[in-house]
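Translate sequence into structure tokens.
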Amino acid sequence: MTEPLIYEQDEGVVTLTINRPEERNALSDDSLFSAFLNAAERINKDNSVRCVILTGAGKAFSAGGNVKHMRDKEGMFAGSPAELRQGYRHGIQKIPLAFYNLEVPTIAAVNGPAVGAGCDLACMCDMRIAGASARFAESFVKLGIIPGDGGAWFLPRVIGRSRAAELTFTGDMIDAETALNWGMVSRVVPDAELMDAARELAGRIAANPPHSIRMAKKLLREGEHMRLDSLLEMSAAFQALSHHAKDHDEAIMAFFEKRKGNYKGE
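Result follows.
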């Protein structure tokens, strides 16, 4: 049976590839949801991982929910309202929680349309790079439904409230250049160069001391809802730990010796 999510690691960088190209990497399959959760748990437990790239197989990043399944009311779209609610809570909604709690930086390499839940999945990542053919749509209203997977939380934090409202209420699709202008992606590259660009960025991140990367990400996450004085207190504790890490000593030596650091996560 084909793996729904391919997990590949090259040194400190893990690449996750949604592997349902015949369905345009639709997100409405329990096996895929479980694969995401297993990958997230594996990443958090593996201190050798320093950055994650997420992309899609084929010509789409993710088309979101399977509309045929919606029409036929099967799979995750089957059952009574109570059953559907539980299905969302124990199915696709596990993905935003897993991505939010990933300890290492994440990069979405958006290789084509990212629609509905696919758009939200890209926004769950810390950074986004788009291929020229990428398209984005928060298109739930076009199907008479709402963002059921956390898009109403992620999208305003990525592009601001006004533009998030525009995309959510119209369901309109925007191209890669518009996404760049709106701050949804940090750069647009030719499709053929997308993965190279993502790997280059991941490599620059992974070159840094891993404890600093993980704690800095935690601070960014907590800073989204924590009071300033509480965040400063947390930062002081993290900084104290950092100053006593062996990788900190190595970074200082590398600075003065004008060389790259050799970090071991210690």
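Note: The chain has a mean pLDDT of 95.
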